[in-house]
Amino acid sequence: MASNNLTRVERVLNERYVRNGPKSYVYLLNKYKFSPTQPGPYFLGGKVHQQGKHGIAHLFGGKAHLQQVLQKRSTTDAQPEEVPAVDQQNDSLYLTPVTIGTPGQVVNLDFDTGSADLWVFSPRLPKTTDTSGHKVFDPAKSSTFKDTARSTWRISYGDGSSASGSVGKDNVTIGGLTIENQSIELAEKLSPSFLSGVGDGLLGLAFGSINTVKPKPVATPVENMIAQRDIPRTSELFTAYLGSYKDEKDADRGASFYTFGYIDQTALGGQTPWYTPIDSSNGFWQFKSTTASVGSKKIARTGNTAIADTGTTLALVDDELCAAIYAAIPGARYDSSQQGYLFPSNTTLDKIPVVSFDVGGREFAVQKEDLAFASAGNGMTYGGIQSRGDLGFDILGDTWLKGIYAIFDQGNKRFGAVVRVDLTQDPSVPE
């Protein structure tokens, strides 16, 4: 066990992040590979993919199969086209500094409870790759790095883009906590869409069963914290307090942070956490969510479940609930060109309903200011809650998580929450 000092791990606002509703939605179509059920330009369609022998020298042989790929409808009668990188949001509003190696190299990563890989930019990318604006972890400069022979990783998305490479082990420091011999996935190939943001990789906080390393998945950082006794046996957990730059005038001054191995008492604000069991069989932080409320209207959602995903900006729910939410906002409408629900940007707080989602028997609300996600042009705002398409569960991302202090209790297989106190609400559309 390394010597550790458990402290807050502050999230850093990405000043270059540009909010865009449709791009954020396309990112989720890629991440979760679901089919939209509302009209719009993006859809999953079959595309023939050839494997094996290619080219003039191999006229016969090989194998072709039909692959479901995210596509974009043409504005003409032409065939659908592949989704270009500029149509996707591959950047993160907040990033978290992480130190890797000896001496330490700092990279800014997206902490994501919806995935289980820790991958970083590396010098092993092709020399033609433009990594300007990114911090690149160089294993050759770390005395504690060791390659893991014959291990590889690959993350594939619905549009056909991917990230892949080799694997090694090194020390990883998050806040004041050092994890020894943590597996690190080094990018050797990246689709262009990964290069457009300023983040330097991703740190997955889901369960290791969905880690992509072959031939054998590797332990996640939290799994190693527990195995190495880096965090107390009584607190095998991490927490997320996702504040907003809008809240600088509040008591917490818009603080945004994670903790590992302890629950921040200031963030609890004297409240007792509400806990519900999770089902991690799919690798996610998934729990029962069988009701929702829109204003005074309670909606039964028999058998419904949801996952808490810190790597997602929006919240995605079923079509019936989506329609009920925006029906309660004067002037709101569905816009097929933007594949999402919009509402007037001058909507006052009293015209925005309180929307809440069940967490195993108790509902927690979306803050009204977080329902306004991004400008949609022409005096309209892209809503922070959108359709989950044919996906069988809700995805509760930052839109909802900013209304709570979230406790991811891995040791006890449960998810906990208390209401995040926000005394003022700013309904203005984020820039």
Shape: globular
Quote the distance from N terminus to C terminus. Answer: 45 Å
- Work out the oligomeric state of the chains in this entry: single chain
Structural class per helix/strand content? mainly beta
Strand percentage, roughly? 35-45%
Helix % is under 10%
Report the count of strand segments.
30
* Overall residue-averaged pLDDT value: 88
The count of helical stretches stands at 5
Low-pLDDT segments: 48-66
Strands in their spatial order, largest beta sheet: 1-14-13-29-30-15
Biggest sheet features: 6 strands, antiparallel
Instruction: Please tell me how large the radius of gyration is.
Output: 22 Å
Walkthrough of the structure:
The protein has 431 residues and is mostly beta strands. It is built from five helices and 30 strands. It is globular, with a radius of gyration of 22 Å. The model is unreliable at 48-66 (pLDDT under 50).
